[in-house]
Design goal:
Two copies of one chain form a homodimer.
Chain A (H helix, E strand, L loop, with lengths): L10 H21 L29 H12 L21 H13 L10 H17 L13 E5 L2 H17 L9 E6 L4 H9 L7 E4 L9 H13 L3 E8 L11 H11 L2 E5 L24 E4 L1 H4 L7 E5 L2 H8 L9 H5 L18 H35 L4 E3 L8 E5 L3 H13 L6 E5 L2 E6 L8 H15 L1
Parallel strand pairs in A: 2-3, 2-4, 4-5, 5-6
Antiparallel strand pairs in A: 1-7, 6-7, 8-9, 9-11, 10-11
Helix pairs in contact in A: 3-12, 4-12, 5-6, 5-10, 12-14, 13-14
Amino acid sequence: MSRNKAPHLTPEQFRTRGHQMIDLIADYMSDIESFPVLSQVDAGEIYSSFPVHPPERSESYEKMLQDVKDIIIPGLTHWQSPNFFAYFPSNASGPSILGDMLSSGFGIQGMLWSTSPACTELETLMLDWMVEITGLPEHFHSKNSGGGVIQESASSAALCAAVAGREKALRNGHSEHSQLVGYISNQTHSSAEKSLKIAGFRDHQIRTIEVSSDFSMDPNHLLEMIRTDLSDGKKPAFVCATVGTTSSLAVDPVPQISEITNEFDIWLHVDGAYSGSATVCPEYRHLLNGIENADSYCFNPHKWLLTNFDCDLFYVKKKSDLVDALTFTPEYLRNKATESGQVFDYSGWQVSLGRRFRSLKLWFVIRHYGIEGLRAHIRSHIQYAAQFTQWIKDDDEFELFQKTVLNLVCFRHKEGNAKTRQILETANASGKLFATHTVLNDQYLIRFVPGAVRTEMRHVEEAWKEFKSAAS
Amino acid sequence: MSRNKAPHLTPEQFRTRGHQMIDLIADYMSDIESFPVLSQVDAGEIYSSFPVHPPERSESYEKMLQDVKDIIIPGLTHWQSPNFFAYFPSNASGPSILGDMLSSGFGIQGMLWSTSPACTELETLMLDWMVEITGLPEHFHSKNSGGGVIQESASSAALCAAVAGREKALRNGHSEHSQLVGYISNQTHSSAEKSLKIAGFRDHQIRTIEVSSDFSMDPNHLLEMIRTDLSDGKKPAFVCATVGTTSSLAVDPVPQISEITNEFDIWLHVDGAYSGSATVCPEYRHLLNGIENADSYCFNPHKWLLTNFDCDLFYVKKKSDLVDALTFTPEYLRNKATESGQVFDYSGWQVSLGRRFRSLKLWFVIRHYGIEGLRAHIRSHIQYAAQFTQWIKDDDEFELFQKTVLNLVCFRHKEGNAKTRQILETANASGKLFATHTVLNDQYLIRFVPGAVRTEMRHVEEAWKEFKSAAS
């Protein structure tokens, strides 16, 4: 048996290596435009670049950093590139990286208030600040009936909402789980259906509501389905409405939907994962019309609000609905603070027991940018999308699929699907940009989303030239 | 409408601030013994130290760092203190912090192979390396029927296991969800029951199995309950066995339990969240006897294996069982690599769609420490616990509750519960250490776990003196 000592880093060794790591990250930021945006490696190439067996003995830091440069970086798709226009952005701003470093450095566990009061209370404060910044209803503020918590993602938030809705529907004891029904539209994010299924809803308990011509949920069809289910002895339990669908940023009519869910006492979850960030600007708050009647709401600063993954903000109208569904406190976690009832234990607001100090990064972002800076960030991207839209309108080869919403442009080549797909593949293969596609009404569409932290008008111009060149 | 520009950091501004942040973290590491281990703040104190309203304009970095020192640090319970002996440790080693910084800096999303091949493939390689390092069955290796994935926590892993088990039990179409039954013991971590409930098991579908005198699950009682359920027309679907319970590190008899689960075709999940890390040492591999018959297994390097939260390693014997239960691919995520079937898309192995590049920190840890260093780390803590145990054995005031397992010492004052509780509260209030308690057989016990990265024998000695002094 070896009696070697583990080679822990001293604070001074950590300092030296930390400075080297910061330099590597700062260099990556400087050089990022020199890499092909979409990684060009083949399946299995990264895996087989490394030894099959783990090292017996400590390796040098220099060798590890060299492998990062030689092997890892070529295997990345560069989400932080200003030429990344795919999916939705994943903003990792400087201040959020700094806040996240601090979270890693402290290495605390925020499962209970007592396991680090600052972790719980700063999180509560950030969620309360965001109520003000985005103009949310006062009942989402922690001092009132509701409150907010940071979740890993909109998927986790949807799961917690589905479980809370399920429990609320079963509380009166008149229904069985197998009678419950959940409602989504055919444009709702896959995470909502996945959440319902994880929460035990079977296929026959999930209804897919039709959408109107603008791809938003048709409230008449929702009402009709609910009435049918009720007359069949089912118990409608959960509706997920979306403010900004993934394919086209369609906005489900929350005012009409919430009238229905209120009438039939159904949990309404509003998923604003992407578009919610735009409501830092007063001129986009109308997107959340009707939100005051929702039971829960989430949006992801880790998409478009400068805060690196993971940071989904999840609000509930009534804390007790969530906490009653998700709290289990065994003996070894009991403590005076919890029993006083004066504190929040966020482990009872989420699936996992453990949790990182995630609010630090959001705190750094809000303080560094200020409300003004957050608004300027959002408005810049919307302006780029508006310019790009104008180029398409003025062009004779390409056409818009729909009116541009926020910073998502859906467009196609007039020759149709095959040509459009070929243009996207050619543009992506150039390495100069990365955009993705969707299919709506059987039309293959390029989704172009200028939303990265470092994207400027010049990058959008270059992208437009690239699409034009790929078309010819 | 403001036309201000958002104050994004240039790479050079980030470099300067990053160096300052590294210095703050290195100073925190140096000074950590000077803080009271358990935060002394009152409920609401941190929240009310900050402005009620968010800032309109950008604030200075210096002011933010000052607030970290003046307000946040006093609000922390210092999990990285060498005098932290509470719960289970949450190892944030230097190399893991460096790896996590890189993950934040790259800011990529690993939901699909194509969204950053290095993220998926390095993760696969790390999970395969860990099969070798901890001597797991070959079927957990990615090249065989099974494979592994990094989950947020053992709670998330248990949830995925419960859902996979549920789906397997329902696959033949002969049973309804309401007939399924899940089995835990009264010592199983609360996350297993929570997972079953999230997955839709109602109270009447969860059985709590009795434990033997050593607090391990009684396989005879398990068998009896399963037979009763079968004769009642129920469908046993999921058993969670624990290798190292939270209260006392009891080890459920996986060889006998797995004989039963195999006979009745029930999903067996083995939760090795804490003790699994010890199996890097060949002399503790016997803890996992029988693991070859389990359907899934997890352990947390973010507890005792030098890797900061979140890093739970979750293995399944058959990939398809997990992936079939958790994969939903909408149009906007379709891509050639996925359709080729040659790659893993880890979003289909977990609840959330999005995911961080979490394997980087594990890669840094394994390469920095080497297998030798990982073993030395584990063995040092076990040696400290053995020494502490000897002091108790030689003492006339305190007594052991049970034989010490690994590095968990459960002990009490001979005068009983009230005295033991008072000693723990006095010791914790001193700020010189932090330990927690549990209750077993109605006895209030101090749980003492020397497992922090920087804990040395001298800290364990000081803790012993502190308990002695609190007792007098």
